[in-house]
Amino acid sequence: MISTKMEGALNKQIELESYASNLYLAMAAWCDQQGLAGCTQFMRRQSDEERDHMLRIVDYLFTVDGKAIIPALQKPPTTFKSVQSMFELVYNHEQKVTKSIFKLLELSDLEKDYSAENFLQWYVEEQREEEELMRNILDKLKLIGSGARSLYYIDLELEKINQEQLAAAAAEPGA
Ligand code: FEO
Fold first, then answer.
1. 134 lines ligand 1 (CB under 6 A)
2. From the candidate CATH numbers 3.40.1160.10, 2.140.10.10, 1.20.1260.10, 3.30.230.10, the one assigned to the domain spanning 4-171
3. pTM (2 decimals)?
4. Ligand 1 centroid to 130 CA: how many Å?
5. Ligand 1 centre and the CA of 44: distance in Å?
6. Helices 37-63 & 150-171, crossing angle to 10 degrees?
7. What string of pLDDT tens digits covers the 175 residues of the chain?
8. How far apart are CA 101 and CA 86, in angstroms?
9. By three-state DSSP, how is residue 160 classified?
10. Ligand 1: distance of its center to the CA of 52 in Å?
11. Closest ligand 1 atom to the C-alpha of 53?
12. 35 vs 158: CA distance, rounded Å
């Protein structure tokens, strides 16, 4: 049986993951308008991943007799200053999510909710990977710079990351 406090905190996390999914889908739509196919596919897949993060919490609440509250859709921005600033926004959002996961872990510790603590470990690893990925992308964007042809090379780079991630997913056991 989950406590009301932990149930409320996990529902807040559902909101955060759901907003991330919406935000990244809005970013995919903006990238598509800029003709950046690699960036579009990358953000589209990130959006799917965030929806999966949200669903994991919904499913977890089902298993502990908690009540999952599905949040209203908050409208994300529809335009972004540049690809660089868009990825900075993604990185900032991921850092916010990581802090929120750590707070959930603190709460699970305080409440001696070892089931929640065990469940949240998956998110700790996932956030480490996502923050690292976004930092690597930002580093590459800095190297490429903002010259006339930079968008072309940025998009190629994102397409390369897409292919690497798809290959890694296909190689996972059970894929
Ligand atoms: Fe689910 Fe990337 O935060």
1. no
2. 1.20.1260.10
3. 0.94
4. 7
5. 13
6. 40
7. 899 999 999 999 999 999 999 999 999 999 999 999 999 999 999 999 999 999 999 999 999 999 999 999 999 999 999 999 999 999 999 999 999 999 999 999 999 999 999 999 999 999 999 999 999 999 999 999 987 789 999 999 999 999 998 999 899 888 7
8. 23
9. helix
10. 9
11. 1
12. 13
Burial of 168 (0-12, 13-18, 19+ CB in 10 A): exposed
Supply the pLDDT for residue 147: 76
Among the listed residues 26, 18, 25, 31, the one whose alpha carbon sits nearest the alpha carbon of residue 46 = 25
Amino acid, res. 131: E
Ligand 1 neighbour 7 (Cβ under 6 A): no
Residue nearest atom 2 in ligand 1 by C-alpha distance: 94
Ligand 1 centroid – CA 166 distance (Å): 18
Tell me, what's the pLDDT at 172? Answer: 86
Q: Of 169, 159, 171, which Cα lies nearest the Cα of 129?
A: 169
8 Å CB contact between 131 and 95:
yes
